[in-house]
Amino acid sequence: MCGACGDRTPADWARPLYAGPGARSALAAAALALAARPGLRVAARPGGWLVTGPTGAAAACPTLTALVAALRRATGRALPQLPVARSSGALSVPAPDGRRGVRLRAAADAQAAPEDRWTVRTDAEALAALGALAEPPGSLRHYLAGISGVTAPWGASPRPVPGFDAPERASDLVVWAEWARQSGAFDADPFAATCPLDGTTRLDLEIRAGYVVRAVRLLRLPERVTGIDPEL
What is the pLDDT of residues 120-131, one digit of tens each? Predict the structure, then answer.
């Protein structure tokens, strides 16, 4: 998603999803519900969020990544239960994504490939490629469209997460996914989910080896989310 708006706060994979105050308020509600600690407060503000603890200590969080990190420190919770029945609020619908999808393939006899196909020789090289896709400047130009040939557990086909079938549940999905990512839940097991953002678009989210490798908007629901490109 776009990162060329001039915002100089740290990069955050979810930033286009909370462009408006309503979306930030929804994420605040989702985060507070997930934290489940009495006396803890999360307030949305133009620059992100303000987390206030029971003693009055406050922390400004400019990104969703920072918000979840602050709540994890405040609560000590490792991985809360997936909130499939919660509806904390809808998120912003990102502008059309100008990035290009990349199909990543690991093969011992790897040779040069077109720009939209990254071919590597080993799982270690594939892991490095995921890191390049998940962090700037690579994340500003590409996202993972498919993967094949990786033998490590994080290269397997993820099982789609059901239950997030309404725009009002998107905030709960995004906060939980980031919480789980920071907890290490997706270091080995890949994660994939989709959720409506409005009546015509959906969020397509995938996390592998702890990296958010795809967070894009779709104009329609795909038949299935596998993370494996059948053409590779």
Answer: 999 999 999 999
